[in-house]
Amino acid sequence: MGTFENVYPRYEDPVFVEMTYMNHAHNDYLEVALETGLPGLVLIVIFFSWWIRRTLSIWRDADADGAFAQAATIASAAILTHSLVDYPLRMTAVSAVFALCCGLMASPAPKRTSSRRDFEAKAVNLSAD
Fold this sequence. Notes:
By secondary structure, this protein is an all-alpha fold. It has one domain. It is 57% helix and 0% strand. It has six helices and no strands. Helix 4 crosses helix 5. It is elongated, with a radius of gyration of 23 Å. The N and C termini lie far apart (62 Å).
């Protein structure tokens, strides 16, 4: 990872070389493929299969508790789509938001099975005497 800037000039057409240079491919998937080869592509496919399965599951089981997970699917989809034409996941702030979205997608809200009576039985009353 991180070799694009050193490797890309080897394959540039000298006729079109200018004073400016590319420090990243403007496509995250292409850059991962160029830098990691087949193992990187396999990881991308594994991630996308997880992401699609979780997205479908989150939207199929939609309820009030899943609003954050649904929002995370939309936000992460926007970032993944943006990665086709730029490299947003190489920016620390965007990567942090993307990781948060994946975390929200990975852990669906637990179903509430306890009753109000169970909650009240576990409650502890404190007093300031």
